[in-house]
Automatic annotation (TrEMBL):
Pfam families per UniProt: HSM3_N
Source organism: Colletotrichum higginsianum (strain IMI 349063)
Gene3D superfamilies attached to this UniProt entry: 1.25.10.50
The protein's name: DNA mismatch repair protein HSM3 N-terminal domain-containing protein
Domain DNA mismatch repair protein HSM3 N-terminal, residue spans: 19-143
Length: 211
């Protein structure tokens, strides 16, 4: 099954590459949402890795320059980044880019930043790495507190809660005796105590505590 997925070509990929090239060279070029959506629906963990070097640089450029609603571009970017670990994602979206996306009035840009920050809940070491970016944490909390869109506020709540959970210094909770979706999620996320660095950054940093 995996081999088959890898060898099946992505329909519309060549057209998408040309469209992205056009958007980079002429940002005012109208977006083609259907083309973007059609390619996104075909992406999976197997065929995404070889496409990253080809598509992500242009998508990143377009997100910074397009005068259009970036929602279709953001959706495709989130899908491409889905299998990429937090540390590698930071090579593509640095601290200043995350801050700009969190501050953006466009909900889609907020959701892209939150999708990237959600990866920091993958392990205690990833959460500890995020703690070294206090300005990003500040904007995450600010967006959580002030997002006018329900979808953005709910996503920020989940991201912040998941990061604090994996960073918690207390021992992981025991596995539930009865099936529980929440218990399964906590057990899956926390295999060992966290380092507590995000907790200390949020609750002991005067600037963050004053938000």
């Amino acid at each position: 099954m995996t081999t088959t997925d890898y060898t099946v070509p992505v329909s519309g990929l060549d057209e998408l590459k040309k469209h992205l090239d056009d958007l980079v060279s002429a940002p005012e070029t109208p977006l083609e949402p259907k083309l973007l959506d059609d390619v996104e629906l075909q992406l999976n963990e197997t065929n995404i890795p070889p496409l990253l070097p080809t598509l992500l640089p242009n998508l990143t450029t377009i997100l910074k320059t397009t005068p259009h609603d970036p929602s279709p571009i953001v959706s495709l970017t989130i899908k491409l980044l889905s299998p990429v670990p937090f540390t590698q994602t930071l090579q593509l979206a640095d601290e200043s880019s995350l801050i700009a996306a969190l501050r953006s009035p466009a909900p889609s840009a907020n959701l892209l930043a939150l999708a990237i920050l959600a990866k920091a809940a993958s392990s205690p070491s990833d959460a500890a790495l995020l703690s070294l970016m206090p300005r990003v944490l500040e904007e995450l909390i600010r967006r959580w507190l002030s997002a006018p869109q329900v979808e953005v506020g709910e996503k920020a709540t989940r991201v912040l809660g998941d990061i604090l959970e994996v960073d918690c210094e207390l021992p992981p909770p025991p596995a539930p005796s009865a099936p529980s979706t929440l218990g399964h999620e906590l057990a899956r996320r926390r295999h060992a105590p966290g380092q507590g660095r995000v907790w200390r950054r949020i609750f002991h940093d005067r600037d963050l505590f004053a938000l």
